[in-house]
Amino acid sequence: MQNANQQGNQHINQQLSDTFNAMADGLLSGQCARKTRIGLTLIGSELGEAELLHGAQLVSRQYSDIELVLIGGEQAGEFEYHPASELTECHQVMEQLFADKQIDGCVTLHYAFPLGVSTMGKVVTPGTGREMFIASTTGTSDTNRQAALLKNTIYGIALAKASGIEKPSVGVLNIDGAAQCERGLKELQQAGYDIHFADSSRADGGIAMRGNDLLRGTPDVMVTDSLTGNLLMKMFSSFTTGGSFEASGFGYGPGLSKDGCADGQLVSIISRASGAPVVAGAIRLCADAAKGGVMKRVNEEWEAASLAGINNLVNKYKQPVATDAKSDVKADVVSPPEKVTDTDIGGIDILEIEDACQVLWKMNIFARTGMGCTGPIILVAKEDKEAAKAKLVEAKYL
User: Which of 61, 131, 163, 323 has its CA 20 to 30 A from that of 212?
Assistant: First the structure.
């Protein structure tokens, strides 16, 4: 009897020992921590819902710290699912999940960010296999090009730090405005902003990055305007496939602004041609940004840059708005009652987008400004689209 009790006690002790060892292993591996919940909308891809679902399955197999929440499309039994019948409805469900704090981030496509928000993407460079952030890839940080480049730098650094790079190196792609951007960044550095510049791989070195540096991934963060960045993302992700299938990289990244993220929501972008590997990469990048507190990082970087004088630089770049004879828009125009804006009108110059919006307000048509995949857009309700387009044509914005 005594031997039986001793054996029973030994068995219990072994179970307790195994349990505590498992808990310790879990703490060391991070698997006991709360999983990062990332949404994925399944509607709108040119490659079909199955391709996006395949990307979700890749993440599920590779990363135990991510919990996926699918929105729209066909229900997949292995994941939490929220129904939606079209992409606009997917975004409404997504925004409600954010409001209810049910997701930490979401990967979607064709999402209209407000002006002032741009996305920071990440690629795998073909020359060396290095990962490199592209700042930025869609949206517009500022309507002034020079101000936008400075802001893109801050946001790119913030995302790199949130992704685990303590002191990311920064290079400025050799595009229009690069020299002025470089001068501005050096002014910030001299005034105390902690920024680390990359050195070009070409013989003459310098902060200005050439095409070779793009292929080699010389800096951790490559600063450029969003249209150039968008082109680069497409070339890096699909240069081996002929362009119809994005096979490599991490997508176009989260939308960031000097206030963190749009409405506090960490929304990351893929394109209609993003294949499963890119979908999986985009989910991983979104989860890294959420876990790394990217919104807090943006605020910290902006505060540090503000102490070094970035606001003065941005204001210096701003040009006075010229009086435009083609409209009589006034500053005291009041927005009509808010409506669901589920359709968009493109083709308006970014420097005129706000004036165009106010022209519609004067007609009592509720409208919002945003950035679509092809550039600036005005968002209106479906029932207002034809009247809005007619007015914008009449006012010569279209």
Answer: 163
Angle at 73 between CA 276 and CA 102, to 5 degrees: 85
Q: Which residues contact 292 (CB under 8 A, 6 or more apart)?
A: 161, 162, 163, 164
Is 106 one of the catalytic residues?
no
Q: In sequence order, which ranges of 36-166 are alpha helices (DSSP H)?
A: 49-62, 87-99, 145-162
pTM of the predicted model over 0.85 = no
Task: Give the span between the Cα atoms of 77 and 80, in whole angstroms.
Answer: 8
What is the rounded CA–CA span in Å between residue 53 and residue 56?
5
CA dihedral 133, 139, 145, 150 (to 10 degrees): -40
b/e for 281-308, b at 16 or more Cβ within 10 A?
A: bbbbbbbbbbbbebbebbeebbebbbeb
Q: For residue range 235-285, list pLDDT tens digits in order.
A: 999 989 988 899 999 999 999 998 767 678 999 999 999 999 999 999 999
Q: What DSSP line would sit under 117-154, residue for residue?
A: -EEEEEEE-TTT--EEEEEEEEE-S-SSHHHHHHHHHH
